[in-house]
């Protein structure tokens, strides 16, 4: 495949955009090579500036459950744009999407819309702190909750107590309020509660992790978190930016039958436009300004264009809930196809899959947390990524991401993808 124009565009972009991109993973730093500049997309396919076609396994990192240019969403946005793009005043559509979200998601009474998953998670922990009158939060190594200061924390040397910043610009002061536990390790959580009595406002977790590759919660792990939060009057925050409206109508809360105290959304809830949201019961949400004293605001929050895309998306999901089954079946088909080829070729691997999320790790060890995810062979991943790309398959350009299947993918597309793996497997 020729990437001439993408390569030129990337050079131009690097002069005026840091690293040539507006979000780091797009730059291909972890796989090397030239990022592909998209010209357009349709259904399950991407078309780049050089005229190459790819089968897309990221779908904008999750939002496009039904694939690109899904007609009901596109129509809603076009119709809405004709009536004005932003007012900074209340609009009826905000209530409509809120009513629908509250109906679809268990255990929430009210929802606040923001512009990104980052904003949703950042605001959710402020609300949790304001509500509990406590300052510390627990997050899990390898989970991503957006780029706000409190979450850019990694394990420090004396890791049992508090973390250290993993980006310059995050202060030690902020880092000391973020405690780090290990995914699927309830003891690591108990230790933090023991060492920080009555100080923990909330645990925040990706109920199915997607940001260290796809990692599933062990049986009863989420339940144990629910219990420990209840016992300590701390809040349990499910970051459902990835899983919300993707695993089921009601997200991970529905799938695992566990009630979180606060839930955050992004990605699918915006149907491909910039939307995030956080939601909870009245008792907690009423602490939010202007009703309560926990401040949170946004000039473009609840933007009518974004809300129209989100409402169209949620309406489609509400009316076609068999989409989750269809997606899960397609993902399973891909999994089985990959499994067969990798096994036949004696390539060590693990595949983690849940619903329409899936990751392939080149490792001989089960991937259950960040440490085990880090043991997978990244050199092999790079070969795999570029091999597949040359065959017209666009995978996440990092070994620490999940694939997001979309329902525009046909079984023929999946077969092509499996054949592509077969073709390149000799090089792995
Ligand atoms: C993508 C993501 C975020 C951040 O959302 P942005 O819209 O990129 O700010 C937060 N949490 C999870 C679980 C995510 O996958």
UniProtKB/TrEMBL annotation:
Keyword Cytoplasm applies: yes
Enzyme class at the top of the EC tree: isomerase
InterPro entries referenced in this protein's UniProt entry, alphabetically: 4pyrrol_synth_GluAld_NH2Trfase, Aminotrans_3, Aminotrans_3_PPA_site, PyrdxlP-dep_Trfase, PyrdxlP-dep_Trfase_major, PyrdxlP-dep_Trfase_small
GO biological process, one term: protoporphyrinogen IX biosynthetic process
Origin: domain of life: Bacteria
UniProt-listed Pfam families: Aminotran_3
GO MF term list: glutamate-1-semialdehyde 2,1-aminomutase activity; pyridoxal phosphate binding; transaminase activity
Protein name as it appears in the record: Glutamate-1-semialdehyde 2,1-aminomutase
Organism of provenance: Capnocytophaga catalasegens
Gene (name only): hemL
